[in-house]
Amino acid sequence: MNAPFNPARGAALRDPFSAFVCDEATAELLRPVAVEHGWAPEKVNKGGLRNAVQSLSVSASPNILFVDLSESGDPLNDINALAEVCEPGTVVIAAGQVNDVRLYRDLVASGIQDYLLKPFSAEQLRDAFANAQLTISGPRVNEPSSERPHVLATVIGVRGGVGASTIATSVAWLMGDKAGRSTALLDLDVHFGTGALGLDLEPGRGLTDAIENPSRIDGLFIERAMVRANEKLCVLSAEAPINQPMLTDGSAYFQLQEEMRAAFETTVLDLPRSMLVQHPHLVHDAHVCIIVVELTLAATRDAIRILSWLKANAPQSKVIVVANRVTSGMQEISRKDFEKSIERQIDVIIPFDPKAAAQAAKLGQPIAKAGKNMKITQPLTQIVTMTVAAVDGSEDSTSSTATAGGSLLGKFGNLKGLMAKKPKSDKATA
Ligand SMILES: Nc1ncnc2c1ncn2[C@@H]1O[C@H](COP(=O)(O)OP(=O)(O)OP(=O)(O)O)[C@@H](O)[C@H]1O
Ligand SMILES: [Mg+2]
Q: Taking a C-beta distance cutoff of 8 angstroms, is the pair 322, 346 a contact?
């Protein structure tokens, strides 16, 4: 049920509808509306979410599933249990008594189409079913066709300054220039972001406005707030005043992702690692996570930790590990030791190229453009190819997170091996 690319796939063989409610009043409201849609009233069952999980674990999932969360003590957790038994493509509408926008966002992030607050009216129910049917019958009007599914690529630097924004900007630019995809670059480093700076643009107030007023975010807002870099690339970035903390529950970020999904063929998300802690839902829909590392001890430790975190928080995502600023001379940690510690290979190596970086800074262009004929372009293009391939199905799956096995503890064991042993104190040796 989680963010299906093509919700219609496999829909023909299923029951059109079933519901699992907690009380008779909800059942009575549901039955006539179900009948209006041509669905059997017997498909309205009792037992709420618990029964839904039990039933779906032994039978095929319907196209539209209505599930009542009223009796659930931990709706979010229970929804995840449902996700395990629910087949992809099922559109889930939930209902419950908890009036909390955070829960709503989290539910939507975990693949729920809609959440109806009880008591709700027959009209609200009809609206929810109409939206569900639209989702099943095909893509939204301004959504890219299914031949070109949306790509959400998240770029995360495991340490500060490893070059994550440099890579995000170049990947976004190449997505437009080389892959011909309309692309949004969303830079969530609200105070210190370089998404606009790197393209010689004024960031504008769009992103700060969005964070301050998430309810204003819609297609039109996106159209107005995004700064155009070229025909294929638009940027949303900010330089919020340093004395102005950004107070947000993260709903704006989530909504921006949603709108960009509708308006662009690719979203490149420059995601500061500190935000992973606060807003883990930002990677829930990411198709690809580009993890930028450098060959140092600290980056090794944090690469291990972030890769492990991604396994739990973005299991759907293909991970591409990119080592940046790699020199031909000696590194703090060798590539071999680094790969041994993270228990997977580095997918792409980008050389340290101060000449290309200087050129990019001087021209206000992405490094992939400014250093066009330099060595740095090829690996950047490789990232774009791998990213697109991960979504259009032509990838080999060898480098996905799934291949990285073993325990975190074991990996730290490897890491420890890299660290110079502390000399024993005189006392100890005496
Ligand atoms: N391959 C490279 N060769 C030379 N310089 C590079 C390379 N990649 C990035 N840089 C330079 O490194 C600096 C830091 O890059 P960038 O701002 O992209 O890092 P970041 O990981 O986004 O940092 P932050 O943690 O501040 O977000 C920039 O000056 C950039 O030009
Ligand atoms: Mg950055």
A: yes
CATH number at residue 114: 3.40.50.2300
Pairing status of strand 183-187 against strand 233-236? parallel
Whether residue 193 sits in one domain with residue 268? yes
More confident residue, 428 or 52: 52
CATH number of 336's domain: 3.40.50.300
Domain containing 182 equals 151-417
pLDDT tens for each residue of 262-297: 999 999 999 999 999 989 999 999 999 999 999 999
Q: Is any ligand 1 atom within 6 A of the Cβ of residue 302?
A: no
Give yes or no for residue 204 CB within 6 A of ligand 1: no
Instruction: Taking residues 164-182, report their average pLDDT.
Output: 95
Ion ligand 2 neighbours, Cβ < 5 Å: 165
Q: Give the C-alpha separation, 337 to 411, whole Å.
A: 11
Q: How many domains does the chain have?
A: 2
> Closest ligand 1 atom, CA of 162?
21
Q: Which two tokens stand for residue 413?
A: 């064991």
Asked if 8 contacts 136 with a C-beta cutoff of 8 angstroms, the reply is yes
Residue 283 sits in the same domain as residue 206: yes
User: Which atom of ligand 1 is nearest the CA belonging to 157?
Assistant: 21
* CA 294 – ligand 2 centroid, Å: 14
